[in-house]
Amino acid sequence: EDVSSTWHDGLEEDLQAHLQENDVVTTNEAGVDEEGYLEGASIEELAKAWAEAEAEYSTDMASMYQDYSETPELAPYEFSEESRTYMLNSTTTTDTKEVVSTTNNDRANPDLDLFGEGIRHFEAGEIHAAILSFESHLQNVDPDHAEAWRMLGKCHAENDEDRKAIACLERAVERDPYSTESLLALGVSYVNELDHRRALDNLKAWITHNPKFAGMDVSAGEIDSLYGSGEENEASIGEREELSEFNEVQRLLLRALDYDLGDEESATDVREALGVVYNVSHDYKAAVESFRAAIASRPNDYQLWNKLGATLANSSQSADALPAYHEALKLKPRYARAWLNMAISHSNLQNYDEAARCYLQTLSLNPNAGHCWSYLRIALTCSERWDLLPIAASRDIDAFKEHFDFVQY
């Protein structure tokens, strides 16, 4: 019997059944083996690659839905070797690949604006160059620059690297405990990592440390839910202590919304925070309404559109999530996280070719997103693109250009 024509029999049915059982809509950075396979692999090796991809996928999903009761201590942030001397002898070039030697004079160079360079790269969607700029600034100019740590965390969050984002944002908050942008971003990243307790702690601090609400009564009181229901929250969270903290944060946010109605920008910030909190309790209907209200006031905020899309996808509305992701990408075409979220929604809808294209776009923007290769292999298997599995196994993104329409950076 010709094994090359039968090795994949039953794989699609098994995988689709697996996908139906695990309605996958969000991603986190999973600690899985990123070892690749050589191009020209045998049929047996390809079958093994598929099996390992499914195993990685299952591991990712299991960790995603695990309700963490404890979180390991924060690991040190590891700067890339490339960033150590990035642009130190060139204050005008924007060549992202220039690496030169460093001297003590470089550190004191008053014309060196690595932070400003990082901001310019970030706004242009050049996240890798922005990361190098912020890392070089923190190593060579000012290691205690809270805003640089915040922006570095924001870069990693946009690349779907929440653990790295958390490491940076924690350092930003250590240096500036009243940075409301850092506290809100930290709460979002902890939600993505399913560390709900730390997410709620930071969202509470976002209110109590916010000077705009300095005169607000923060004493305990009754909760008047704006959108959500207490029964849904209790059923979702379960843990009484965590439920109590959730209720406290929800109460503070609702009070802040009522307290500051005269300031539309602040009210929009509160609605965004409420959307994040309702995601913690899995009250997705309330979260969607919160994000939609925030978008009505801030329609050009690409992150709000992505949060809306992710929330719709989390509530098993992947088709409705796609327009929200499209809006996010219209505003910021190089937004890796939105491309990945869109790929996952297409996978949920069994649009596997489009999912593969979006995974490839994500990998083009963030070559370090190793878990995307696992998702790509699954999408190719489901669409029966057996000829492309050796390319995926070798992780040769250039070879995919003749098969899929995506922009290579």
Structure description:
This protein has 409 residues and is mostly helical. It is 60% helix and 0% strand. The longest helix has 23 residues, at 43-65. Mean pLDDT is 78; it is low at 1-11, 21-43, 57-72, 91-108, 222-227 and 229-238.
Report the sheet-strand fraction: under 5%
The residue fraction in helices comes out at 55-70%
pLDDT below 50 for ≥5 consecutive residues: which ranges? 1-11, 21-43, 57-72, 91-108, 222-227, 229-238
Give the CA-based shape. globular
Order of SSEs: HHHHHHHHHHHHHHHHHHH
Described by strand count, sense and barrel closure, the largest sheet is:
none
Overall pLDDT score: 78
Straight-line N-to-C gap: 44 Å
Count of DSSP-assigned helices: 19
Q: Which structural category fits the helices and strands?
A: mainly alpha
Count of strand segments: 0
Rg value: 22 Å
Key descriptive features of the protein:
single chain; 409 residues; mainly alpha; 0% strand
Walk me through the topology.
Blueprint: H1 11-21, H2 43-65, H3 104-107, H4 114-123, H5 127-140, H6 146-158, H7 162-175, H8 180-192, H9 196-208, H10 230-237, H11 240-259, H12 264-280, H13 284-297, H14 302-314, H15 318-331, H16 336-348, H17 352-365, H18 371-382, H19 389-394
Helix pairs in contact: 2-18, 4-5, 5-6, 6-7, 6-8, 7-8, 8-9, 8-12, 9-11, 11-12, 12-13, 13-14, 14-15, 14-16, 15-16, 16-17, 17-18
In brief:
The protein contains 19 helices and no strands. It has helices at 11-21, 43-65, 104-107, 114-123, 127-140, 146-158, 162-175, 180-192, 196-208, 230-237, 240-259, 264-280, 284-297, 302-314, 318-331, 336-348, 352-365, 371-382, 389-394.
